[in-house]
Amino acid sequence: MSHIDAAQIREREASLPAMARDRPFGIFLVLSAAVSWIAAGILVLERLALYKNPNYITSCDFNPWVSCGTVMKSAQAELLGFPNPLLGIVGFGLVITIGMALLAGARFARWFWIGIQLGITVAMVFIIWLWSQALYEINALCLYCMIVWAMMIPMFLFTTARNIIHSVIPAPAALRRFAAEWTWVMVIVMLIITAATIVLRFPGAFFGA
């Protein structure tokens, strides 16, 4: 790469919103995926303890509504025949690696970003399904699962916005401007809506029976 090309890339990067730049986006991926990876790791350890002792009380069994043990013993917690958090260990580990690569100066081809988008979209759909099952089928919450939910919402929205802004996802100029200016608002709104659904579904967990 020539000095002129490098200068043009730096100039273009500087004109982009923070989350569309490689370094800030890389930092975001590393931090959000690391938090999710730790939460998934704790869930795996707790599930192993339950395998050893079915009467084991998990570290986040606080009350009838917030009970990781209840959630872990449900069929939904092992959708593919093994504990769901194992998927998180692998998936979030990959996201951390991608974030570190961006921090090291790696530049990925469009097909690679399409793959990242597909992977994070599938993960988000899975998280939405788990959220609906926890609220309306299992009727219990898992603290560590909610941490993953809270990380996946900005991870999905900022990744999608980044790919729209960089034309990985074809979009008209108006949508690119919207992604650049309003994604952070969408993140806040979605987090508030998610929290509201939890509070409204389990008021006893927050306000007493």
From TrEMBL:
Give compartment(s): Membrane
How does this protein lie in the membrane?
Answer: Multi-pass membrane protein
Q: Give the record's family classification.
A: Belongs to the VKOR family.
Q: Which residues form the Vitamin K epoxide reductase domain?
A: 22-163
* Transmembrane segment boundaries: 25-45, 86-104, 111-132, 138-161, 182-202
Report keywords, A-Z: Disulfide bond, Membrane, Oxidoreductase, Quinone, Redox-active center, Transmembrane, Transmembrane helix
- Pfam families, from UniProt? VKOR
* Xref: InterPro entries: VKOR, VKOR_Actinobacteria, VKOR_sf
The scientific name of the source species is Paeniglutamicibacter terrestris
Look up the domain of life of the source: Bacteria
Task: Report what the protein is called.
Answer: Vitamin K epoxide reductase family protein
